[in-house]
Amino acid sequence: MELKGECVNGAHGTKEQDDFDPSAPPPFRIADVRASIPKHCWIKNPWRSMSYVLRDVHVVFALAAAAVYFNSWFFWPIYWFAQGTMFWALFVLGHDCGHGSFSDNALLNSVVGHILHSSILVPYHGWRISHRTHHQNHGNVEKDESWVPLPEDLYKKLDLSTRFLRFTVPFPLFAYPIYLWYRSPGKEGSHFNPYSNLFIPQERKLVMTSTALWSAMAILLSYLSFTLGPPLIFKFYGVPYLIFVIWLDLVTYLHHHGHEQKLPWYRGKEWSYLRGGLTTVDRDYGLFNNIHHDIGTHVIHHLFPQIPHYHLVEATKAAKPVIGKYYREPKKSGVIPIHLMKNLITSLEEDHYVSNNGDILYYQTDPQLSKTQLLSLAKSEW
């Protein structure tokens, strides 16, 4: 087994941080964290949840109307960023439907989730099921589903162009559509294929339904492109979709990577649901916290995904005294969370793979991964 607390990338962080070993088994149980959260935080109010849907949908249509009205080179970039951000907000609400935190009504969750996710080209059940696997195995290098560290042997099998694309900004920020179709390196299956090993036989009809609705949205966009012209649809929908993908990849990556203090991953007997969940990271997104429904309160969300998003800030505040140093206070953001770009870039430069051996693991850095050399080699391969 590797030494606990060993960090192959250098120091963990500050001296105060070095005094605390984040891989040490916590002195509290998940039941203790649960008990610290006020009872009303567990209550799901479908009317309140629907009010957020109506709010976001209203903003989406208002932005589209404004784009039609102004139709100028000055306004289009504003529209693209704002509408892409709203697509991301819609995704988060559909994500809540998938967790069952939207309401206690499974049919309502499914209907709303399908409408929201299909509208932004996400296969609702296909993604919901794989995301459930991610939550059930967070922090487990063998079983986790989202942004999982590559073991060293698999990393060394990647061709140079794949390494370049995986670890060089901005390419990882466009990974999500590829992930939906092909998953991650070392994993097989597709979120659209009901016979994929992502799903059990009882889930196949659900996946078929979501794939059919995704296909209907893709056909609608194709029809609109044919009748109105591809440039117009690209401006109204295509560019905001790409902004949405950037948001999704940025947020999901930084909730599990890029903390100033290196955090452990686990395999085998050292992994537990609680220890894995405590390696997730909260983030402050400044102006966007409310817009994308406090998705930055990620630690409590990962431990208790059934808590509605509008109670996560209060639940986090209540749980912090129990979690103690295992909770890492997010760096305060300005209006725009530009500070997170440093975390992203540093992580992609340092966090390349984990050892093939051991049950407590920290990211290791490939010293040969020089961006200049890699780009040159990748070009020669292409």
UniProtKB/TrEMBL annotation:
Region (Disordered): 1-22
Molecular function GO terms recorded: oxidoreductase activity, acting on paired donors, with oxidation of a pair of donors resulting in the reduction of molecular oxygen to two molecules of water
Residues of the Fatty acid desaturase domain: 73-327
Record key words, sorted: Fatty acid biosynthesis, Fatty acid metabolism, Lipid biosynthesis, Lipid metabolism, Membrane, Oxidoreductase, Transmembrane, Transmembrane helix
Location relative to the cell: Membrane
GO biological process, one term: fatty acid biosynthetic process
Keyword Transmembrane (UniProt): yes
Residues spanning the membrane: 52-70, 164-182, 206-226
GO CC, any one term: membrane
Superkingdom assignment: Eukaryota
Pathway membership, UniProt: Lipid metabolism; polyunsaturated fatty acid biosynthesis
Residue span(s) of domain Fatty acid desaturase N-terminal: 12-65
Keyword Transport among record annotations: no
Main localisation: membrane
Family membership noted in the UniProt record: Belongs to the fatty acid desaturase type 1 family.
Name of the protein this chain belongs to: Fatty acid desaturase 8
